[in-house]
Amino acid sequence: MTESTENKNDIDPTAAATEDNATPRRKTPARRAPTRNRRSATRKAEGIGTGTRGKVLVTGAAGALAQHVIALLKEHYEVVGVEFRGLQTDYPDTVDYVVDFNTRPFEDVFREHGFMGIIHLGRIRFTQSTRNRRYSANVVGTARLLRLARKYGVEQVIALSTYHVYGADARNPSLIDEEYPMRAANLMPEIVDAVELENLFNIHLYKHPELNIAILRPCNIAGPGINNEISRMLSQSVAPCLFGFSPLMQFIHVEDMAAAVVRSFERNRPGVYNVAPDDYVAYQDALQRSGCRRLFLPSVPPSLARRSVRALGRYAPPDYLIDFFKYAVIIDGGLFARTFDFKPQHSLTELFAHYRGGK
């Protein structure tokens, strides 16, 4: 299932720089005084609806979702893309800096550009690195990102979370709204850093209202370029499913999710929002509509199901997510739709056709 939105070239987070004197790979930021006062004056003069509205920092800039978001933002903003999750041999043009949040040069990026907004899309998934590395990047690194946002007068922050924070459980309500507790830390310790990351943003949402933080909890993001767990399942000729289980699932096209991110940024309504379409589909139906043959695995006892999933390796989702293939987790996206006047443009038929056409 989706926890982040990587592009089709996976990033190796274990190779990221960790020394304080590490330098960004693509540019060396100039060390100069903060530009907060000049930026604020410029934005007031231009207004929200005219001209270039300022500079926006987008993290996780190598991911497919970030590439769509950056393309939309460039119509009205100057965009600086940062990739912090690791080093690879080649990056798309959307990446301007490769730098660890926990190193000194990351602050130089803030000094150089004077951002008016941040869109935080990057997060290391459980399957991509060690627990300590994930926590350092996802939680400690994001805490530093927010400290720098306060220090340099950033006026707005969009944070991408995941519906996984609710956890998958047979006792979940049929429709989960934003007030439902985040139970994933108790149900699935492997993604406790995702819950801690959102808790960090929630604390800042109320403690530092000047940051105007909006937290987005999307359903399964899928479509061209997406390389998360559910997208890999739909891309395979043969995909696993559990005997006796076919939970309802929600999917949102990567282009619709990018539009949702930009819409929330431009309208600036702080809060916590589920992002999901009104329609949903059973998991086994999604596999068949994507051209997959179903490989049935035993579902009981749970330990046998988890061993079966592990034996399949990359052809199956991580075993800690197995409950999402047993129990429906349907989120209510009505608040986001009403607040931002948002409606997805891509149908499930179109989404599944993309995967069927790739086989």
From TrEMBL:
Gene3D superfamilies: NAD(P)-binding Rossmann-like Domain. Residues 1-11 have a biased composition (Basic and acidic residues). Pfam families: Epimerase (PF01370). SUPFAM superfamilies: NAD(P)-binding Rossmann-fold domains (SSF51735). Residues 56-276 form the NAD-dependent epimerase/dehydratase domain. Residues 24-42 have a biased composition (Basic residues). Residues 1-48 are annotated as: Disordered. PANTHER family: BIFUNCTIONAL POLYMYXIN RESISTANCE PROTEIN ARNA, NAD-DEPENDENT EPIMERASE_DEHYDRATASE. This is NAD-dependent epimerase/dehydratase domain-containing protein. It comes from Salinisphaera dokdonensis CL-ES53. The lineage of its organism: Bacteria, Pseudomonadati, Pseudomonadota, Gammaproteobacteria, Salinisphaerales.
